[in-house]
Amino acid sequence: MLNHVEVSRLLDILGNRNRRRIIELLRQKPCFVTEISDRLIISPKAVIDHLGLMEREALISSFLDERRRKYYYLSQEFDIVVSMRKNGSEMRVAGLPSADLRLIESLSMLRRMARARESILDTLENLEHDIEATMNDIIRMSRGVCEGDLDLDIIITLSHQDLTFGELVEVMERDPEAVNISLGRLGSRGIVTKEGERYRIAGMYGAVQT
């Protein structure tokens, strides 16, 4: 059982909505950075920061596949149950014992949460469908433009957020020279541009929030 300091630290980590979303995704299967970024619409750099924090706290682990791509997975399954109670005098309504009242309040809360969850799941399902359709369109339209998986990975990553060369190499987890060649190729076609130290998709401004 965790002590109060460990519980407090764990709650701080899981207080971030995107870290909770990453954990739920990793419950399904191991994923690499750009896969998490694409599925959850979070900037790749933010994904790296969240994964690094959770890996340091031993909530997740990682391994490399044959292509030297780093996959992250839950190191152990866990659930958090929070119990709450009101201070002060116990309430009674219409003569109900306090234990019965607390049960009714909890059942009412459960109904509200279940309805909220259904609404969120419906929205997420529709969004996932739209994301998948858009990704398929991008893959189809990139034929003849992208010369390989790296080109495609770079333009999808930059569609999330403008990145420096160093940040892009870190996200791609590929040889810097290969990334540089790919950027040159995409730049010559007018798809990727460089402003200052950052690369971006031509004509695209703004970034996904962390």
Automatic annotation (TrEMBL):
It holds the Pfam family HTH_5. Residues 110-137 form a coiled coil. It comes from the Archaea. GO terms for molecular function: DNA binding; DNA-binding transcription factor activity. Residues 9-86 form the HTH arsR-type domain. Keywords: Coiled coil, DNA-binding, Transcription, Transcription regulation. This is HTH arsR-type domain-containing protein. It comes from Methanocalculus chunghsingensis.
